[in-house]
Amino acid sequence: MKFVLFLLCFIPAASMANQDEDFLAAREAFRKGDSAHLERMILRLKNSPLEPYLSYYRLRMHWDENDSSPIKQFLSRPDDTPVIDQFRSEWLKYLAKRQRWSEFAAEYPRSINADAELNCYAMQLRQLSDEESALREARNKWFSGVGQPESCASLFDAALAKGIINEQDIWMRIRLALESGNVSLAKQLTNKLPKKYAFPTGALDKAASDPERYLVKNKLDKNSDAQRLVALFALHRLAKQYPQLAYAKWEKMAADFPDTEQRYFYGWLAYQAARSNDSRALEWYKAAGETPLNEEQMAWRVRAALRAQDWHEVWVGITAMPLQQQQEGVWRYWKGRALKELGRIADAQALFTKLSREYNFYGQLAAEELGAAPAAGIVTVSFQPGKEELLAMQELPGIQRTLALYRMDLRTEASKEWSWTLRKFDDRKLLVAAELASRNSMYDRSINAADRTATLHDFNLRYPAPYRESLQGRLREHGLEEAWVYGLMRQESRFATQAKSSVGAAGLMQIMPATAKWVARKMGMRDYRNALIHETEVNLKLGTYYMKNVLSSFDNNAVMASAAYNAGPSRARQWRGDKPLEGAIYAETIPFTETRDYVKKVMSNTVYYSKLFGQPGISLKQRLGVIDAKNADNIKPIPDER
Predict the structure, then answer these.
(1) Can you give the pLDDT at residue 198?
(2) What is the pTM assigned to this prediction?
(3) Distances in Å between the alpha carbon of 501 and those of 442, 443, 512?
């Protein structure tokens, strides 16, 4: 990546290249355990802003030595880099495993980002002086469907021995583990039950691998808590794929379960049905009665009501949520919509007024409900920091480290360093940092900083538009709206040309390799090869062609095209309703969390970019439009679909 470093603090390119090469060599020496080579690199980089990383490497390679004074000296430094707190966390775990509790107690209070493993070690320390309190705190961590760190195990065992974690708590955690699909954890937990409860652990594997077969082949002993739990697990697994089939099985065996377990199952059946856009979801939610629902189940209860356009049920579902969940923008907006539909206009407007001050999908929709123009609240004038402010910002060690790490494409480390440095900045400093990042083509870090401001904003930094010259020809060729293309790119890659997702999507437009090959073939690019996907011009060429292809296949509906770009055209079609849906409801009821958030953000971005580009204002609600009902023509694959 070519960096145009801020000229007020220019460093010769050759010098930077040498430093980068030496740092990467030091990093590799640490990885290989080559202490001698690491020391040579440390000598060459003693004045580098990355020195804390080099000191970290050295200490990690020698921390089992008797003299811990170098470690104490390192940890006594000001916490101006995340690598110090990272080392502190690792050192504390090292001390705890060796029962060096006095040293642990002295250093633990300075820990900033303690994880679950470290927190459990801290509880072990407190157990030495106040066992009852420590074990009761440990019990709070017990109720999780995922595995906990090994440092928690001795606390749980002690709490079980003293009855602080009881038999009912064990059953509850087994159920939570099964709800999470964590069969191995559930099997481990069965060993903690009293011997009188013979738990068929092998049955859990059978129920997980083929739930329908398990329900057919295994006769249920309704008096066995364990067998009923496994049967409920099998039904839950079946409902995840086939809600109607699970219900058919349930009807034949429901009488063998007590009322509380019947209502429990209906809560999960309703949740899975809602995620499958099954019209019976609300009926099953009602059958669940007063059974406790988790936040995801509650959210999908409301989404099922939106899908059915049952506004009273939308209001009931939201008001049943915990207060913290109700305060999320999504539920404030839909509660406002429900109140409006139910005739409580003043209450609705009060919600919309407060929400409209937020710069996001729901803030935009709320403002439009109040009659505001599209993106009315944004200012198109750029923030202009002074030269002194920019120079002072670039001289901060954390900023220098970020620049260096980013330049070496160590993006994870650069992001951590950036966030750590910015964590206490006020709005003005955030915008200065954003401007500096933008000048160095670190658009993802610039967006990250600009997005954090509370009252002083620069929307040109929040919504940058690099590569416009390269894009113009492609936009004209395919007849694509520039604002939508930028709205999608901002969400896909934050304009990081080397971005690569966990599933292999690459470049500015995050194109999957298979998609890139297909598009290249369609475009007649005979010389295409995978290595080209990160080249800006090629990535834009492939991405815009595919965007046009997808958009055309959905009759120029940008909402469905955005969903298809992220999750595939077939899924986007299947998520249509049995009757026409508001685009906002279609987006809200997409079953995939990633795609649901993605579509909202792409469409929200599009409105902001349109305003910044000075294009005709089209409201977000207009852009979302109405999604046609599912029919035989609009759900079948198109000929070009792979």
Answers:
(1) 76
(2) 0.93
(3) 18, 17, 9
